Amino acid sequence: MGPRIGPAGEGPQMPDKDSKATMDTEDTYGGKASSEPQNLRPRVFHSIKFFVLCHSLLQLAQLMISGYLKSSISTVEKRFGLSSQTSGLLAAFNEVGNTALIVFVSYFGSRVHRPRMIGCGAVLVALAGLLMTLPHFISEPYRYDHSSPEDMSQDSEASLCLPMTSAPAPTPSNDSCSSYTEAQHLGVVGIMFIAQTLLGVGGVPIQPFGISYIDDFAHHSNSPLYLGILFAVTMMGPGMAYGLGSLMLRLYVDIDRMPEGGINLTSKDPRWVGAWWLGFLISAGMVALAASPYFFFPREMPKETHELRCRRKFLADASSPVSKGENSPSEQNPGESLKKQDDLVQIAPNLSVIKFIKVFPRVLLRTLRHPIFLLVVLSQVCMSCMVAGMATFLPKFLERQFSITASYANLLIGGLTIPSAIVGIVVGGVLVKRLHLSPMRCGALCLLGSLLCLLFNLPLFFIGCSTHQIAGIIHQPSTQPGLELFPGCAEPCSCPSDDFNPVCDPSTRVEYITPCHAGCTSQVAQEGLDKSQVFYTNCSCVSGRGLVLAGSCDSACSHLVLPFILLVSLGAALASLTHTPSFMLILRGVKKEDKTLAVGIQFMLLRVLAWMPSPVIHGSAIDTTCVHWALSCGRRAVCRYYDHDLLRNRFIGLQFFFKTGSLVCFALVLAILRQQSKEAGDKSTTSSPGLEQQRLMLGPKKQPEDSSV
């Protein structure tokens, strides 16, 4: 579940027109000596190393705020009464704005002041993070016991069995179901959707512009090192997001406006809602701080000194293209470069918007017709669908399946699963570099990683346990809860159907939705060592002593959470092992002039086909396993209870399905590569070196123009 690395060469940059002109004309004020901007700006802002440091911190903070919602998805559902399908759609909206604009970064890459664009995007991300916290401040304080009137202490006698009550059962919630309440709810949810969209829009220029800026002004031998440091720091962002979620969800949601009498909840209570908004506030502040240096970086900075010496020494030798130009020596005319390559397929700095729009469909269709590119992208789509669903709903799955707190679930994911994925990405890159893997061996490594990931997924179907017995709930997702479904012993109590204050009979491990549904008429609070334990007595529906404990019954398989998360983490490492070799297959499988847009097309397809629909698909599958919905003004709100066996089978089954699809695609890739290798071996050595089959099978030393990365 590593970060989705954007195209490194968005908008290829033309080489310098001469070896000494490295500063931007805008920053040199009419072509004056480069000492003037050096005096106007601190010297540190003309250092590419400082830019790498700033960009690493910014991407770390940006991925942290983008991934934070996934760590608190179940908390947001409970706070605002959302279904998993709606929360999945909310998480997917982060990709909407990003997808709509990412392709045009290829066009604007060389035409704008990239550091300032990065800074503006980061400011927009910070503002979107602040906007995500707005629903907390404009909403009423969270009331976990809706049966008690507002002037009474929550969790009071209002949830007890009171036969003489004069209030009819179905009406308590109807008083609050006004048009204003519904409009307020829609407004709050709409604000969060807008904020998620702005998060995606603000993140568009950050990664592509930053990577291309580093690649342009770093020495070509230092650029891979700088990018490696950037990616290594960036990949810690999702893990820190889950760690921040683990800390924030231990705090009560209304920590800034606690009721006078306090609260009678612990983080283990299913009604507990943590301070989800506080994480957005902290991460937005981090993004704003990381964005400030970008407004002081020049549009262009001097190349590193050893790069200039190398260029003076080898200026006449243009046989080896540098990573940013790939085409021509410094004295080459841009117009001649476009004529040597197809002027309709090479995205050059002087290409107009109209021409760019005409070029893109042709490059898209030609690239998609390439079988290797298409199959590798489909395999990455399947893998990304698995990662997106797991990243969004794994915390909620662990909470429900093993009865653990949201804070502990985030701690497990941020401490085990995310680092395992990072290790997998690093190991995959090391294997490709150290073993000098050819496209054939890259395909074999991807196939092996997918196969092992699929095998480690199988035991997950059997790690878990069934839902404990819940009195009065029929395990039929289509059945709506009502008074007629509860035991007859509670009929005289006139219990409200929408109340939720679960209690557990410790002798039989039977759970009741409220003390009223257990027939309890009195409440006793017993002070313990660190907290008070609440008991309900005189319960007509409970045999024996007639005593129940406040809170849900503990799961019988909570000890299995560690073996489960270890298998998930191992599978994440094996899936991440395919990241680098599959990326190399794409770079070596398309024409040289199409590489920039091919990578952009790849990540656009990943967003459209995987990161946008996958959270909605997983959320919809989770909703089908619900057996008891909370009702809000007659509509389904948050799910109170799930069928654990059905939840496990469908959630893990979706993961298994996507992993199988990735395995099949990589198997087809390997079969095509072997067929091409056999055909290339049968042909004469005098065959044309420009064929795509030979381009795939020849290493970079034999075909530097076509296979260089």
Automatic annotation (TrEMBL):
Keyword Cytoplasm appears in the UniProt entry: no
Compartments it resides in: Cell membrane
MF term (GO), any: bile acid transmembrane transporter activity
Topology class, membrane: Multi-pass membrane protein
Primary site of residence: membrane
Pfam families on file: OATP
Keyword vocabulary terms for this entry: Cell membrane, Disulfide bond, Ion transport, Membrane, Transmembrane, Transmembrane helix, Transport
Record-annotated membrane-spanning stretches: 89-110, 117-138, 183-204, 225-253, 273-297, 372-394, 406-432, 444-464, 560-587, 608-631, 651-673
Coiled-coil features, chain-numbered ranges: none
InterPro entries: Kazal_dom, MFS_trans_sf, OATP
GO terms under cellular component: apical plasma membrane; basolateral plasma membrane
Residue stretches making up the Kazal-like domain: 483-543
Gene Ontology terms describing biological process: monoatomic ion transport; sodium-independent organic anion transport
Region (Disordered) location: 1-37, 319-339, 678-709
Polar residues: bias regions: 320-335
Protein family according to the UniProt entry: Belongs to the organo anion transporter (TC 2.A.60) family.
Name by which UniProt lists this protein: Solute carrier organic anion transporter family member
Lineage, highest ranks first: Eukaryota, Metazoa, Chordata, Craniata, Vertebrata
